[in-house]
Specification:
single chain; 536 residues; globular; mainly beta; 3-stranded mixed beta sheet; Ubiquitin-like (UB roll); 20-stranded antiparallel beta barrel
Length: 536
């Protein structure tokens, strides 16, 4: 039934027509081949002191200590240049790229006509408060999980980001250090590095990447690597059943290029070299006869993957979808990505294996107030020794804003794994979206979940800094249990609480304080769960 639901939704998206983009002012200028003679970058402060609601001590003090974003930080995000004809797609892609930067609250590019028939592109960038202090707390089943992080998104106005944090989960505690430069050396290369000191090991991740920024980007390239050592624990009803010493690494190098495009569509090809390895050793058993056991396993894959992508640019801009008073860009066009490869023993693999991974996303706008998006993600191995292994995940999200100051959201998700490894297993519980239940409630290889949520946005604006809202929700789900091989009974919970929007930051803009109550009772399930998450 869950799979049929997803297929029906995907067919609806497949055979739906694609809405035509409205002819905006930049499209009109492009049709007349008007030249952009000058680019004027206008950085707006965090607080607008011309607005009496924001002209107060906090606003003046925040603007004084905030380091304004430098113009040279913004220019690499502009996909057009002075002296070029107006190109509406490049203009709007630049706006999306700017809005996606964590130190930018909002951005728009406005044409100003000049007496000589050219235009000046006015780039208006609204700075966001870039110092983020985040605290998250969850207490359920007698256990507490919490995290505290400090992240500066815009060091000295140069767009560079640094993060230091500490987190305690049911599995482990760890300290986290991360650095990112979205425009390395003022180019469109992205650099990211992260190191975690775990209570049971270490982990690091690094990446340097030049992505496709829009359908006209001719090439993309990059390399990435990660490695970790830790103790992986398998839980049932939030209690550890057994654990492994776990080690993994993965390194990749890729190049992709544009092979065909039109105004809003592109096809791309590429080649990737990949080396990955994992091992599970030294099983420690805490509760016998609860779950089937995984034996010691070690495998190494090295080889090449071919890449193909079909991408459509059909973006819409909406507000109050996931955040508050922030423009959010949603692509309703097709994005189909496929990788196929082979890992032979002759290149160092521990066994011959064919490999596939891919993703499909698509959306549909019914009108200006409602839209739906769907996605499918998978990866799988076919090995000469060890058989086949597959994991896929699908989801559908529907949003409706016909009611005043409300966003209704319905989401559905289905996960399936075939011959899973421990890392492929999935859980049903509080941290996986079933609020009101303990984390790691049940473990299995298949799961469905849906959420119905009503987000209310009020006009209560405090000092131009925060905005108040409310939320009410219903969560439900079931899992094919690893312990029995059968589907569990459906579980459900209801809850609600406050949503507080931070109007001066970019990412992590909503503080939530909610209370959830399980509707299906079971031994060990508490009556009420309090959840606090902040993104200041």
């Amino acid at each position: 039934m869950p799979f049929c639901f997803f297929i029906c939704t995907l067919l609806l998206l497949l055979f739906s027509g694609q809405a035509a983009n409205a002819l905006d002012v930049w499209s009109a200028l492009e049709n007349h081949q008007v030249i952009i003679s000058h680019v004027d970058i206008n950085i707006l402060p965090v607080f607008n002191l011309q607005n009496p609601n924001e002209n107060h001590f906090i606003g003046r003090w925040a603007n004084f200590i905030h380091v304004e974003t430098q113009e040279n930080t913004i220019r690499p995000a502009l996909l057009f240049k002075e002296g070029e004809p107006a190109n509406a797609m490049q203009i709007h892609a630049s706006e999306r790229l700017l809005r996606n930067l964590p130190f930018v609250r909002d951005a728009e590019i406005i044409p100003l006509e000049n007496p000589d028939g050219t235009v000046t592109a006015i780039v208006k960038v609204h700075d966001a408060w870039s110092l983020k202090l985040s605290l998250a707390l969850r207490h359920v089943g007698g256990e507490s999980e919490w995290s505290a992080k400090v992240k500066e998104y815009n060091i000295l106005g140069m767009g560079k980001q640094i993060q230091i944090g500490y987190e305690k989960t049911l599995d482990r505690s760890f300290t986290d250090f991360a650095f990112q430069d979205p425009f390395l050396f003022n180019t469109r290369w992205i650099f990211f590095s992260e190191y975690k000191q775990l209570s049971d090991g270490t982990a690091y991740y690094g990446k340097i990447d030049h992505p496709f920024y829009n359908v006209q980007t001719p090439w993309a390239a990059g390399m990435a690597g990660n490695a970790s050592t830790s103790i992986q624990t398998i839980y049932e009803k939030s209690e550890p059943v057994y654990n492994f010493d776990y080690y993994q690494y993965s390194y990749s190098l890729y190049y992709k290029f544009l092979v065909w495009k039109d105004d809003h569509t592109a096809q791309r090809l590429g080649l990737e070299g990949r080396a990955t390895s994992y091992s599970y050793r030294a099983l420690t058993l805490f509760q016998p006869d609860i779950l089937p056991l995984f034996g010691n396993q070690e495998c190494r894959y090295q080889g090449f993957l071919g890449f193909w992508q079909f991408f459509q640019d059909n973006y819409i801009a909406r507000q109050n979808i996931e955040f508050m008073d922030k423009t959010e860009d949603i692509n309703l066009g097709w994005d189909v990505q496929l990788r196929l490869g082979y890992f032979p023993r002759s290149l160092g693999s521990s066994r011959n294996a064919a490999y596939t991974e891919g993703s499909v996303t698509k959306g549909l706008a019914f009108d200006e107030h409602s839209f739906v998006t769907g996605n499918l993600v998978w990866y799988g191995f076919s090995e000469t020794v060890g058989g086949n292994r597959l994991r896929w995940q699908s989801g559908v999200n529907f949003y409706d804003q016909h009611l005043p100051r409300q966003t209704l959201n319905f989401s559905f998700q289905f996960i399936h794994t075939f011959h899973p490894l421990p890392a492929d297993l999935t859980y049903l519980g509080g941290s996986d979206g079933l609020r009101g239940y303990m984390n790691y409630f049940h473990v299995g290889n298949e799961r469905w979940m849906f959420t119905l949520e009503d987000r209310v946005f009020t006009t209560w604006n405090i000092l131009g800094l925060i905005k108040m809202g409310f939320v009410a929700y219903l969560d439900a789900g079931a899992i094919r249990e690893l312990s029995t091989g059968h589907w569990s009974k459906p579980y459900a919970s209801v809850g609600g609480g406050l949503r507080i929007g931070n109007l001066k930051s970019s990412f992590g803009r909503v503080i939530s304080l909610t209370v959830a109550t399980p509707l299906v009772k079971e031994t060990g399930v508490e009556g009420i769960q309090f959840i606090l998450g902040t993104g200041l």
